[in-house]
Amino acid sequence: MKTFNRRSFLRMAGIAGSMAMLPRTSLAAAPRVVVIGGGFGGASVAKYLRLWGGNVNVTLVDPASAHVSCILSNLVVTGLVGMSRITLSYQTLRTTHGVSVVQGRALSVDPPGKRVTISTAKGNQTLDYDHLVIAPGIDFVAPPGNWNPSLTPHAWQAGTQTTLLKNQLATMRNNDRFVMTIPKSPYRCPPGPYERACMVADYLKRMNRAGAMVVVLDANASIQAEPEAFTRAFNVTHAGRILYVPNANVQSVDSASRSITTSAMNVSNAKVLNIIPAHRAGGIAAALGVNASGFVPVDPLTYGITGYPNVHVIGDASAVPASDGKAVPKSGHMANSEAKVCADAILRAFNGEAPDRNIATSSACYSPITARSASWLSANFIYGDIFDATGAVKGKGMHRVDLGEAPTAQIDQDTYQDMFTWADSLFTDSFA
Ligand SMILES: Cc1cc2nc3c(=O)[nH]c(=O)nc-3n(C[C@H](O)[C@H](O)[C@H](O)COP(=O)(O)OP(=O)(O)OC[C@H]3O[C@@H](n4cnc5c(N)ncnc54)[C@H](O)[C@@H]3O)c2cc1C
Fold this sequence. Notes:
By secondary structure, this protein is an alpha/beta fold. It has helices at residues 6-12, 40-53, 73-77, 91-95, 160-170, 192-206, 227-237, 283-286, 332-350, 413-431; strands spanning 32-36, 57-62, 66-68, 87-89, 100-110, 115-120, 123-128, 131-134, 138-141, 177-182, 213-218, 242-245, 250-254, 259-262, 266-267, 272-274, 278-281, 296-297, 304-305, 308-313, 318-319, 360-370, 373-387, 393-405. It folds into 2 domains: 6-137 and 282-355, FAD/NAD(P)-binding domain (3-Layer(bba) Sandwich); 142-277, FAD/NAD(P)-binding domain, CATH 3.50.50.
């Protein structure tokens, strides 16, 4: 992807010496971009719009005063790092990059009127935009029954849920069961649930909880990411501590008694019941229209939505056209990657240019397997023809060109250290 800084942006606008002829706006009225959601997608797009765009007014709206990262959050649940390690401030976006950060929640979007209504501590406000980027992450589809996340947490959005699950895990004693569910794909971070099972099993071992174990109720027919690494982790590294149950569709949850009924196994009175429900796009994005899986279809060259090319959805909330069986994963790394494509497309649009067609995106996940070892997974995508299950071209989109997984010999302490280096560089690239 071509990248450009403020100088080249202005040069492309043909106004390197004079600021009077921005194609759609003047300096007195710098183009306005509103970004909803300050996670990996939203923070990155806000930063790069300012970094590359210069004369662009960027307002980032998020209900929280800082973002708490899901990445590394299983280490918080199991006591290996503290919450401060995964709490990412918006301060540098404000002070270094000139992003206007507003603490508030977007309530509604009016695409024809190019306006967003937000609620803040001072009451409701409207924000006008030329382009809008929506990056709200995910919402959950409540399972049948009386699921109450305050009793049986998901901890799949980090923050208070992470602390709740950590505190519940700390109450486990000998022979207790930690029961967790995995929703049908697509869900955020394909290896993440299997990573959690490993980290909880490792915690129970470290705490000498004899006979205590993890029951993994997976709605999918098989392990969804790094099957070799996790099969080995379940059967060898954590042998006797993890019971993996595939095809376990949730039929009913009773949070009060921490009991669950599935198509494959029922459990009553688990000590901890960690329900990770099915996902859909965060509500503010979903209101614009979703596909059968509950995510918002986008144009992968711009992340614009059908009918409103100046409204963009990036990160976990989006559905990117991809070759069958090679979906673009929902990950923080991918959200950061999509944010750069989206920022570039918006700046080109301000300049009257078509989006770059020569684009690539990538994803990486590091999964701790024990307190001293980790695995990794990466995937790269390029824009072009995408294929159906028979290999016939079905359209244009992001085609996965490679998939890398840690060989068994690399599931070690070096990779565990690499995980922190990778995470810190993603945190910095997105938030600082
Ligand atoms: C346990 C676990 C481990 C993970 N490990 C990895 C990993 O190794 N590598 C990796 O790349 N990814 C990993 N992920 C996935 C990663 O966390 C997500 O894919 C990523 O956070 C998605 O970014 P996003 O910007 O789409 O959403 P988020 O980061 O969730 O951000 C969404 C933001 O939008 C805000 N928001 C929501 N609604 C509104 C509204 N109406 N108005 C204003 N703001 C709103 C929220 O407050 C939030 O701050 C992991 C996830 C989990 C759960």
